[in-house]
Prior knowledge:
By secondary structure, the chain is α/β, with parallel strands linked by helices. It has three domains: 1-35, no CATH class; 37-145, no CATH class; 159-388, 3-Layer(aba) Sandwich (Rossmann fold). The chain contains 15 helices and 15 strands. The chain has helices spanning 20-32, 88-92, 110-120, 128-134, 151-161, 171-175, 194-197, 200-205, 207-223, 228-238, 253-257, 283-288, 312-324, 343-346, 373-388, and strands spanning 4-8, 11-15, 38-49, 52-61, 66-70, 101-105, 165-169, 242-247, 262-264, 267-274, 280-281, 299-303, 327-331, 350-355, 367-370. The strands form four sheets. Strands 9-8-7-13-14-15 form a six-stranded parallel sheet, with helices on both faces. Strands 5-4-3-6 form a four-stranded antiparallel sheet. Helix 3 (110-120) packs antiparallel against helix 4 (128-134). The protein is globular. The N and C termini lie far apart (56 Å). The relative contact order is 0.11. Bound molecules: zinc ion. The site of zinc ion has 8 residues, from loops.
Amino acid sequence: MKGILAAGEGRSWLVTPRNEGYQRLKDYILVKSRKVKAMAKETLLRVEGSSGIITLSGERDERGKWRWWVGGGGAGEESREWTDWPDVMLALDEEPWEEYAPIEVHPEFRSKIWGAVLQRTADPAGLIPWFRVCFPGDPVPDPRVWEEKCPLPRLAEAIARARDAVVLTGAGMSTESGIPDFRSSTGLWRNIDPRRVATVEAMETNPDLFRRFYGERLRNLADVRPHAGHYVLAEWAKQGIIRAVVTQNVDGLHHQAGSPEVYELHGTLRTARCHRCDNPADLEDFIEGRPCGVCGGPVRPNIVLFGELLPEEVWDQAIEAIRASSLLLVIGTSLEVYPVNQLPMLATGRKAIINGSETEWDHRFHQVIHAKIGKTLTKLDQLVKGMNG
Ligand SMILES: [Zn+2]
């Protein structure tokens, strides 16, 4: 496809006359050229607890797009992008908001915020104050009517019963550990589309660029650690709940957290091999640009590059595990990439998805949770422990 590569706000994207990149570029130019003026600040949500009041504020521009922040909106606190609706609950996930009582909800977002609270609650009875603020004047129903709509307790029940569950994780799982999404680039790489560097062609024709690109990713890896969610999954495997973790991530964080059975569909950045003879090699050789000690070929990380096939054996193992599972938990992926986005269709049991934003496949899942992953898995683990203990 012909197009131009646009970059801004730490991202790069392909723009063709018809794709969504075109709209993003138009929006970006409008905002940067200050043709779009923000309107007055508005309070989106206020909650109060023992340690004070948390306020989420936002502003919209004349196109009706929003950006928002927690607190007073000082430098660095603003959300990065203008979006159609301010996902205030996702911002609030950084705080222990469950310990706070709601005081004020922006009238325009009452039902969205109510829906987001439903998704995050472990206890429907705790929703009564939220209902009162979101729907003032409406009679408060018996909280049992909300049980059906609360995905967390129902998903926890399924997890507590499961003996062969499979988890499929994507970039969102790693971003909470501080690893940037592969498809966004920052710093040195802000003008370069990773899809053009992470290819066999780039490795062969521009080895220095290729090595710098992965060298930086490897340096980032040295500082990252698994988050609470990785450890919950490892714990569930030890308890016999999870049979395997299938992942698109190449950072090895599931291994590091102690998950015993991990199928890495896109390989791993933690080891290297010779591109020509497949002989194992040291990552150091790759970073230093030393050739293979056996055949003299180029050394590369054990990842799957764009245009390469997924490792057949790992792929088959993943398919087999998913087919046999009674519960599939999809975490931190918007299921945009083929063929991985076909995997959930193979599952015949219960399916749940936990992701930071909506995906076009949400309607295929029994439970859908749009929230922070580490926090959601921790909450699920507490519920599972309560049921099993
Ligand atoms: Zn070799």
